[in-house]
Amino acid sequence: MNLQWYRTSYLSWREYVPYLLSALIIGAIPAVSIRLRGELIDAAAGTATGAHVFFALLVAVIGLALLQVVCGAVSQRMAERHQIRQSARLEAARLEKAAKVSYPVTETERFHSLWQRTEDVSDLDSGIFCSLGDLTQLAVRVGLSLAVLWTMDAWTALGILLLLAAGVFLNRKLAQQTEGFWVRYRENMRRTDYLSSLLMQREFAAERKLFSFDDEITRRYQSSFAQARRENARLGQGRFRIETLMQFLFAGYSVVVVVLLLRPLLGGKITIGLFTSAFYAAVGLEESCKQIYAAVLDLLTAVRQLGNLSAFWALEEEPTAGENRTAGEEIRSIEFRDVSFTYPGSAKSVLEHVSFRLEPGKHYALVGENGSGKSTLVKLLIGLYRPDGGEVLVNGRSTYLLSPEVRRKLYAVVFQDFYRFPLTIRENVSLGLDSPAADATLQDLFARLDFHPKTLDRPAGLDSDLMPLYETGAGLSGGEWQKLAVARCVLSPAPITVLDEPNAALDPMAEATVYAAYRELLKEKTTLFISHRLGSVRLSDEILVLQDGALIAMAPHEQLLRECPHYAALYETQKGLYRAD
Amino acid sequence: MQTETITAPKALAYIYRSAPGSYALMALMGLLNGCASVLSVWATEQVFTHIQAGYTRDLFASLAVYAAAFVLSGAYSIWYIRYHVQFFAILNFEETTRQKLHGKSRRISNEVLETPWAYAFIRQAYSSRQNLFRYGQIYLEAVLTAVQAAMVGVYVSALHPLFLLLLPLSAVPTLLELLYDARLWKKGYEAVSRCQREEAEYEKAVTDSTACKESRLTGANDLLIAKWKASRSRRNAIEDGKSRKKLLLKLLLSGLECAGGIGGLAVSAVLLHSGAIDLPAFTASVAAYTSLSGILWGLSHTVGNAVQFGQMVQPYFRYWNMPERGGTSEDCSFNETITLRDVSFAYPNQEENALDGVSVTIKRGEVVAVVGENGAGKSTLVNVLLGLFQPSSGTVLYDGRDISTIQEAVLHRRQSALSQTFCRYQLSVGDNIAIGDFSKGDGTEIDTAIHGIFPEGEIDRDTPLGKEFGGRELSGGQWQQLSCARSFYKDSDFIVLDEPTSAIDPLREKALYDAFFRELQGKTGVIVTHRLGAVSLADRILVLRQGKIVEDGTHAQLLAAGGLYASLWNTQASAY
User: Fold this and answer.
1) Could you report the per-residue pLDDT of B150-198, keeping only the tens digit for each?
2) Where are the beta strands (DSSP E) in A368-460?
3) N or C terminus: which one in chain A shows less Cβ crowding within 10 Å?
4) Burial letters B347-379, b for 16+ CB under 10 A, else e
5) Angle of helix B254-274 relative to helix A13-45, nearest 10 degrees?
6) Contact call for residues B385 and B396 (beta carbons, < 8 A)
7) Domain spans of chain A?
8) B201 min Cα distance to partner chain A (Å)
């Protein structure tokens, strides 16, 4: 279990030491009070001692109790403060780590499941903090109390120790019995929960009504629930037996304590006051012993789970000290040299021996059917993937080794499934820039793209937040978001622009506007345009045609119509839809 | 939506009615617990009365009573709370409450769900149900603990009247703290949960699989993390302030709290010293006091929790305020026409009409294409045609009969649709199709459809789908074809296809459209699409613009008319 990341960065002794010290005091007070309280009772019951001794003892006992209360309050504050600070630190670290993870890793199921599993990292941390405090306190309390009892009568102390040990043993059984109970319960209920969501949630409302699947799904829901319930009842019975046994054990414990303490009392070794006080203390220990076990268990579970999180911190990161290309460097060449790529865990390669060269300042298009490898080619081009074979080079340097900073200066990309970032309009559009764009630049650009969302009429204007929270949820429509993504791309000074099906959410009229804007705004740049609508790629300088992972042709439109039957067939099929007949 | 809150008595009445047996058992166990406390105090007194005499029968008898009282004290906390509630009561309660929620969801009309926050609203109602049972317990527990406290209080005041006076003291500091806590919680609640939601959005933007691609090409992550940190430190400042205030209050009240903890011993000792009580009475009073301060501590906790839980159950009851839809169950499949008469529709909380005074008649057997720009009202129109959305004004008539008076279950009996937001059920492949009409049970038809979508044969009827339950993941296009198969599996007279190829490779679109038009033979169909190339096959085309039907006719007629349709067509066609 590797906890290096945790130990070095997040364990702060400055927080632990005072907290554990205060736990020490809180634990010691009940033990220290035993004799004092015994003498107080003797002083109260006897007539021999004077009033001043009695009141002095009373003040001492009250004083100790007050100290305990104050220490309790202070240590609770320390725990809260630790929790507040540490959770922010740990969660920020978790987020920063996620941001640095190399791109191919983020596509894996493992990344997302680790991300979810690290969700409670700060709870685990404060769990460790608190249970260490509890443990210190309880251990001191039980240890010291037993020591005090030992000074009264060794056999009594030993008897109590044995009974407590039996209690701990039973507690362990109980914990084993119920360990992972909630995990199993939730696992059992997952299916039920899903069926329940079909019957309740909004996203299923339309089909729920149209297809009236309520009855059948309700039947399945009920039977799935019944199964979870049976399983639960079974678990409950085991727990019931042990808990009942424990209840009897502890009832017997009180009786045995009295009997054990009676011996020194009758033998004259202890006074009646001390007997009474010791009885109270012993009864209190039974509760402590339950808590000790819980604390140990919490601590072990938390440490173990923390260990599981190390896998997240060990995920591969993006290169940070990649090549430091200066922003202004001119693009001389972009080249695929015999590139092959296979997704991890897949037998079939997506790209096979693809080679081509893009000239700076020219406009290229990439076409092919779904699954022909277009998106993979783009990800290789911009350095998100490392090729299995061959090389992807920009000015002779491998794109996979580019640091995110350099990559940002080099490429501007609109993906077909662009993300709706919860930032302001200005921030969203300026993501590719070094500093936020000026009002005039944005207004001019928005006019060209015919982008006039209602959100801009809000008082905050360009700085309106697009956070999708419901009270401000006016937001943008799908088409408006797409234009925003386009705006970001054309505003970026990066010399290479990749447009991956950038108009999917636009209707034909809006599409025409955006095309015109591209042609105008991206004139000077090297562009790669991916589209399903072959009508829109016709005007590119050259068109790359992918089929089953192989680059089968690269030529201007007219030439492809003549020389590439696959392209010609695709083109004719689409064109056929528009043949007026 | 409705923000009125439900009063505690109404909420409680609802909850107690949902699980009367459980709560009755709770009352019984609670009373037993009270008896155990009194018995335990009495036994303590007896033990100390007999103790000086050594190991006598009387001593062992009183010890036996003491032990019995101890065992009995587990009735409530162990056998009721930890066993009965956790393993039975909660589950039964869950099942009935969820069924009620499902039933309510069934009765809500779909247009009500179109508010931007409906999603959060339903989620909140759904998760709020988990607090109902505890909320009911809190009040009953308060009564039971009060009874228990009274029982012990009466006993102890018989020893000396002074005790009764001191007793409430032990509860005061805890109660004050909890009320203060609740106040702080309520005060900071809005700000804190806002921050939490923002942080969740930022986290999602950093880790979402779509976002990861983009954020690695832009400076988005730095910005998002900076914003996350800002929000987090705002939230931490609030939390830290709360924690500091709590410490201050605790220190101020430490004297009182100390009196609660040790006061019983101190007063008893003083009384013993002054000779007002003897040693057995002393031990009894200390035992009673200890048990009472425990009881009162619990009581004040309960009362303190009531405020918080009172807030937390609100979303559940608010859900019940959502307007419902009724109607008669008389048969209503249409035979001749569907008519919209001056229909307008506005989404909740939006000023502009999504449909604005639309009148149109669709005849049986017609295949109608609906085209128009984004936001022109195409999807709204089909939802109104299907009767899923109730128009804000105007009427929808099937064969001249207003459908607003007909139950939805009846209304949709002979309809089917492929929505733009089709569902991806995490069920088996077969169920994904069969869910269109479970009563049909035609295995052969399902197998044929599956074979059509997955010709390679690696997927059959029983293949589970969806990552969540360890099933297979499909591509967007495969999911859409599966949904499409579902829509056609259900026998229908009227079918709507809303952007049926949006997730499908446009290079294969033509073949699919040809198939649709074949399937639609003999049915009344509406197809919504951007792809004008596909609509020319329709019997009739409706062109929508800003919620109005601006053109209506065949492809040839509309092209000749030279209006909006013609210009859209030319824009798309000219590319070729």
Assistant:
1) 888 888 888 778 777 766 676 777 778 878 887 888 888 888 888 988 8
2) 389-394, 397-398, 411-414
3) C
4) beeeeebbbbebebebeeebbbbbbbbbbbbbb
5) 20
6) yes
7) 1-149+302-318, 334-577
8) 7
Q: Are A482 and A504 in contact (CB under 8 A)?
A: yes
| Disruptive mutation site among B39, B106, B216, B529 for chain A (greatest number of A CBs within 10 Å) | B216
| Whole-number Å distance between alpha carbons of B558 and B560 | 5
Residue in B closest to A318 by C-alpha: B216
Q: What are the residues whose beta carbons fall under 8 Å from the beta carbon of A253, sequence distance 6 or more?
A: A163, A167, A286
Minimal Cβ distance to B423: which of A106, A207, A244: A207
Say whether B374 and A479 touch across the interface (CB within 8 A): yes
Predicted pLDDT of residue B2: 46
Domain assignment of residue B122, given as a range: 1-158+304-324
Q: Residue A389: what are its φ and ψ, rounded to 5°?
A: -140, 150
Query: DSSP assignment, residue B359?
Result: E
CATH fold of the domain at A334-577: Rossmann fold (3.40.50)
Beta bridge partners, A527, equal A363, A497
Residues whose CB is less than 8 angstroms from the CB of residue A208 and which lie 6 or more positions away in sequence, other chains included: A198, A199, A214, B105, B106
Q: Which helix (H) or strand (E) holds A449?
A: none
Interface contact A421-B82, CB threshold 8 A: no
Burial class (CB in 10 A: 0-12, 13-18, 19+), B405: exposed
User: pLDDT-based confidence at A579, cuts 50/70/90?
Assistant: low
- Domain end call among B272, B296, B324: B324
CA distance B479 to chain A (A): 14
Among A38-47, A90-99, B59-68, where is mean pLDDT lowest?
Answer: A38-47
- What is this model's ipTM? 0.86
Q: pTM for this one?
A: 0.79
Residue type, B253: L
Tokens of A122: 């700060």
Residue A361 distance to chain B (closest CA, Å): 21
Q: Which two tokens stand for residue B507?
A: 């290079």
Contact B240 A106 (CB under 8 A): no
Nearest residue on chain B to A204, alpha-carbon basis: B423
B465 assigned to some structural domain:
no
